[in-house]
Amino acid sequence: MNVIEVSGLTYRYGQFVAVAGVNFTVRQGEIFALLGTNGAGKTTTLEIIEGFRKPADGRVRVFGLDPFADRPALSARTGVMSQQTGLIGELTTLETLNLWAGLTSRKDSARSLLSTVELSHRADVPVEKLSGGERRRLDFALAIWGRPPLVILDEPTTGLDPESRQQLWETVEHLRDTGTSVLLTTHYLEEAQALADHVAIMHEGRIQVAGTLSQVLSEQPARITAKVPDVELPKLLGEVSLDNGQLTVQTRDMQADLYELLLWADRNAIRLHDLNATQASLQEIFLAIGKA
Questions:
Q1: For residue 51, what are the contacts with CB-CB under 8 A and spacing of at least 6?
Q2: Under a CB-based contact definition with an 8 Å cutoff, are residues 119 and 137 in contact?
Q3: Name one GO molecular function term (predicted).
Q4: Confidence tier at 292 by pLDDT (50, 70, 90)
Q5: Quick one: which of 49, 89, 204, 224 has the most CB atoms within 10 Å?
Q6: Cα(197)–Cα(211) distance, rounded to whole angstroms?
Q7: C-alpha 139 chain-centroid distance
């Protein structure tokens, strides 16, 4: 089941085209990472999905509904964690959640949710006294209040320490595993690589690459490196470079080239020092798109 369907989405600010013909779907029970360079159009795309903006062209559906026309109907089924939120500084964390309980039809336990985001010990602390990371955890608690079937997270771990980030990741994975769909944006590419089932990378208003994580990572070659003696190398499928004994192989078939390299080393009694074989990272793909 598709929870979000975006087809031919276009949005303009005057003559400037911020989003140009974007297409993607978010399925039930998956984490979808929408990534992009600064000014790529991902924030505008999120605002349209959340019902804050009407598309200039194209079609957006959330649970089969138009988010702009049917925003009230969708609010009960969607939790949103924005980059900027309007928390009331004078209220405590517990009072903030209790206030939210009166504003939404979703039901939950404030105390239980504070435990989930590890803020139980700060229940009676005013929001204005919380650290930046604690405020983000409170934002996250508000977004997942009542376990809505769709959660939209815009830069959720900004300001979090590594331990809090890991805890939030685990909660997001649990939401996915229990059927919640998660639309995530983040500048931490290792976060998207750790969490996402599907990834789309935007640049200049368009999606430049999209697919499952393995499909996206295959857009760039894997890399094999090792220190080798000055002898004739085996024939490999990838692009080979050798600089002062440092071998680098850029390959789209890492298994085949690694097998040939190890077989060659064994037959010639050669020890491959500092051998390393890694697939491409999202960061490499992201940088390649930006340069292009």
A1: 67, 68, 70, 71, 74
A2: yes
A3: ATP binding
A4: low
A5: 49
A6: 9
A7: 17
Tell me which fold the domain 2-77+149-217 belongs to.
Rossmann fold (3.40.50)
Which of 85-100 are b and which e, b meaning 16 or more Cβ less than 10 Å from the residue's Cβ? eebeeeebbbbbbeeb
CA torsion sign, 21 to 25 to 26 to 30? Answer: negative
Categorize the per-residue pLDDT at 176 as very low, low, confident or very high, splitting at 50, 70 and 90.
Answer: very high
Strand partners, 147: none
User: What pLDDT is attached to residue 231?
Assistant: 85
* pLDDT tens digits, 3-19: 999 999 999 999 999 99
pLDDT single digits (tens) 13-53: 999 999 999 999 999 999 999 998 888 999 999 999 999 99
Where do the domains of the chain lie?
A: 2-77+149-217, 87-145, 221-290
Decide if 135 contacts 103 (C-beta within 8 A). no
